[in-house]
Structures are given as structure tokens and as C-alpha cells.
Amino acid sequence: MKPNISKLPIIGETYNTFDDGKIKESRLYKVEIEDIIPFKDINKETLDIWVTEVKNCYWLYNKETDYFIKGILSNKEQVIYCRTKDNGWFDLGE
Question: Residue 25 pLDDT > 80, yes or no?
């Protein structure tokens, strides 16, 4: 049986996201999806960040990811999402 894998977002669409995964109205942001990049095509800088995050946050991130999702938050900050252990999405970094 295949795991339940979250659908990919649509480039150009806007989605709700929450700062640090804490679901409160004060932490609600909108993210516009800019790009969906297959794992094999990711740049070295993002790959290095991902490797570090998987190591440091082993309880959160999946050790494999199929895509990286690039987006821009409503506060103009760029974010990159990857798969979590439950096959959802969580942003890399801070």
C-alpha cells in the first residue's frame, strides 16, 4: 500500500501556511507558490540546507523528498518546503 502523499500545490496559487507549524490566527501567512523543483534538479545550496535540516530535525523531516516547493510569503520572505515524516510539507530553515 502506498503512503498517503500530499498533492503538489499549483504554481501561481496562494495557500495558507502557519509560522513554525503553530496553528493560530496570529501565525497565519499566505504563500504564493513560485516553483516546484524535483529532487534531482535542486541546487547545491538548497540540498545542503535540506541535509542539515533532516539531520537536526530528524523527528520532523522525511529522509527522502520528491520535490522542493519554492514560495513567497505575504511578508515577502522566500520559503522552501520539503516533505515531512507524515508526507506533508514544512519549510526549511528558521
Answer: no
